[in-house]
Amino acid sequence: MANWNPQPIPIWASAIASVLVTQSVYAQTLPVTDVRVNPSESGFELILEAPPGVVLEAITSTEGNRWIADIENATLELPDGESFRAENPVEGIEFVTVTQGEDGIQVIVSGTDGAPNATLRESLSGIAFDLVVEEPLGLDPIPEEEIEIVVTATRTEEDVADVPRSVTTITREEIEEQTGANSQNNISDIIGKLVPGLGPPVQVNRRVRGQNLRGRPALILIDGVVQNTNITLNSQLNAIDPSVIERIEVVRGPIAAYGGGATGGIINIITRKPTTEGIESTVTVGTTADVGSLQGDGFGFHVGYGLSGNQGIVDYLINLSWDKRNGFFDAEGDRVPAEDISNNQTLNLLAKVGIDITEEQRLVASYNIYQDRIDPDVESDLSVLDTPGLGNARAIEIGNREYENQPQQINQVASLTYSHDNLWGSKLDAQLFYQSTDFDLFPQDSRGFIARSLGVPVQAVSRLLPPTIPVIRQGNIDSDKWGGRLQVDTPVFESASLLWGIDYTRENNNTVERVIDPVAFDRRNEVRVLQTLTSVPNFQLDSIGLFAQLQWDVSEQWRLDGGFRYENISVDVQDYTVSPFLNRNLLLARQPLPTIRGGSINESDVVFNLGTVYKVTEEFSVFANFAQGFAIPSLQFLNNVNTSTFNLEATDLLEPEKVNNYELGVRGDWENWQFTIAGFYNHSDRGQAITISRSATNAGFREFNRAPQNNYGIELTADWQPTELWGIGGTFTWNEGNFDPPGDNRGFIPLSSLEVQPIKLTLYVENETLPNWNNRLQLLYVGGRDRAFEDGVDAFKIESYATVDFLSTVNIGQGKLQIAVENLLDNQYLPVISQTNVGFLEIRRFPASGRTISLRYSIKF
């Protein structure tokens, strides 16, 4: 038999055969013998099984909430029936059906909140789809992989679960929501409702010390730039409009990593960032009105525009907002004569430019200017002081007043920030900054106080005293600071890193009091300056801080943080005159006020911190913290001096305050509920307690005390999402404190309610009533406090009060409509700070606003 040697098939013949086989497979109708639905991380996979080697064709489309696939070259041949159906196979999917039609197989996947997205995946037999389920439209859903990042607590980006101390983050969405129920459009009232440990909303004033953090002053930052001045201006939270804020981080308790007097904690205001893609514009308009007085003088208006874009390596942002607020009325319909929030208008401009120099290097320039112009048409009636008993302030019309120096506050913040993510293995951040505050206060008429001191009617004071005596004054505060900070985050080994760096700040402060002509003031409604006094020392303050902080992940469950900061503060104080009101006997005797010689002081110290977090489980952790704070007292303490022989360089009035703080807490974060409980105690040997005098002649005056001081308390936050559409939660704050004033043999006595706020409870319930329509009802309860009054510290008691707000948000296309009612139940009450005003300050016992409604609409395009 001859040998058979087959010849290779030519390439052209092989190609033709392949095409013929493929065409034959596509031409025939193929059976689908099985359908499987398997859950996946992003949704689920849908597999239609067919004989090996076949190819199924699918044409896909969407209709409303349904995703549809038509497979024409297939027939359904299932062993258990003529069709397939799965009800609620995964969350977010209502059903999946596979049925036989005249033209082939049809697959329908119906989503509960929208059609799922699908991608075709290769399969050895049949056809497979990966379907991604969209997030349900519940109350602010948070993907499991999303981590809440904070930067303030440790000066670097950290997961809040790894921070060994109490931190509250207020998001952009929360700020927008709460702005509706904030008729004064300021930050202090927003955070007063949301942050445990912080005093309740002030509501009737733009600047006040009464809103402390854990009973001590807080350090206020805007993008890391310190806003506080050494003198107690207390307007730092009235330095920026809420519309330009991305988020607010509040760290409760002193922080050794920061200087500048953060003995109560830090409130870091972080401004908006540019969009990452394309160009985006935002337009916002709104109005506010007192429901009880729907008149022209009870309305307010808001207009805002934002432009954000990204082009190549450059991104930019411009945000401009304008607010106009006329008068406001209490729940009884009476006009409230709170001068610095009546008939005022604010203007805010934020501008940012960022450049990605390389993938690892970035440069950002930022500038924010905020102007709050005050031009009230009413003021507080001094005759209320002639009425026996304690009453509320009454408004009298003053018409159009002429000013040499218009009352207003102008705050500017400019910074240049450079970052390098990998500089020899370390991350470097450097910043240069400039900050200034120029504040012309509303004129203060002190004739009511003098009348009480002399025992005569208010109307008689002008006849008894010469016009050169400063019975009417207008203060001016001109403060600016510049400086820089440099920090480097260096890996030590795989599970530890060292943050180290240096901060430097120079602050210049010029404060004067303008003596106003009482004749021109009364007869011509004119604020004419006769002379200026310098009763608050002007100064230059230099501070430099060196710090190092180690972060060590000892294990997956246990973390340690610790470090130190060396702080050096030097102050050069100019000559000044003594306070005219602490030396009014000299004024009445027509004797000149003595001059106090200035001088220089230099103080330094080292503060430490050590904290730990232990994760008992993935959801539950325990944290503990010890931290110290360091602060030089306000130079306003020198107002207590009344003799020209005073030696600034020998006094202990300005001895720094060092605070030791201890904190212990637990936090839990489960899928449907979250909570944090923390307790704290802190002590300082040289506290800075403020009290209100109870003496007959000085009633209402604030007195400064350097004495041992303790603060302690408990804070709680809790949130529960019983369903995807409901949210319930709130906060609770209880804090107390005492001090041991010199010359008092009683030992420790309660701190004033100016320093320690009463119990604060907040509750909320919110619901997505319909898709894209959310509603929220929230309660603020402030308890009473009389400990300091009963022990002779305060001249007042704090009475409890409660208020309820309603907030509603409707998403309409690209826009959002917000409707809010502040003080929904129209409750008549005095905020805490108003209740502290007694004696000659009775003219500042301002009730809060009555029921106030606001409408705001914003749209992005």
Structure description:
Its main location: membrane. It comes from Lusitaniella coriacea LEGE 07157. Residues 160-266 form the TonB-dependent receptor plug domain. With 861 residues, this protein is mainly beta. The protein has 3 domains: 28-132, Immunoglobulin-like (Sandwich); 149-265, Beta Complex (Ferric Hydroxamate Uptake Protein, Chain A, domain 1), CATH 2.170.130.10; 266-860, Maltoporin, Chain A (Beta Barrel), CATH 2.40.170. The chain is built from 9 helices and 51 strands. It has a 22-stranded antiparallel beta barrel. It has a 5-stranded antiparallel sheet with strand order 4-5-9-8-7, with no helix packed on it. The longest helix is centred in the N-terminal third of the chain and has 17 residues, at 11-27.
CATH architecture label name of the largest domain: Beta Barrel
Give the C-level CATH assignment of the largest domain.
Mainly Beta
How many individual β-strands?
51
Counted up, domains total: 3
Give a topology summary:
Blueprint: H1 11-27, E1 30-32, E2 34-39, E3 43-49, E4 59-63, E5 66-71, E6 74-76, E7 84-87, E8 93-101, E9 104-111, E10 117-121, E11 127-132, E12 149-150, E13 158-159, E14 167-170, H2 172-179, H3 187-194, E15 219-222, E16 225-226, E17 245-252, E18 265-271, E19 279-290, E20 299-311, E21 314-325, E22 344-356, E23 361-374, E24 378-380, E25 395-397, E26 402-403, E27 408-423, E28 426-440, E29 444-445, H4 447-454, H5 461-464, E30 472-493, E31 496-516, H6 518-523, E32 526-527, E33 529-533, E34 539-553, E35 558-573, E36 576-577, H7 584-588, E37 595-596, E38 599-615, E39 620-631, E40 657-669, E41 673-684, E42 689-692, E43 702-705, E44 709-723, E45 726-739, E46 749-750, E47 760-770, E48 773-782, H8 787-790, E49 801-812, E50 815-822, H9 832-835, E51 852-860
Parallel strand pairs: 1-6, 15-18, 26-32
Antiparallel strand pairs: 2-3, 3-11, 4-5, 5-9, 7-8, 8-9, 10-11, 12-13, 14-17, 15-16, 17-18, 19-20, 19-51, 20-21, 21-22, 22-23, 23-27, 24-25, 27-28, 28-30, 29-30, 30-31, 31-33, 31-34, 34-35, 35-38, 36-37, 38-39, 39-40, 40-41, 41-44, 42-43, 44-45, 45-46, 45-47, 47-48, 48-49, 49-50, 50-51
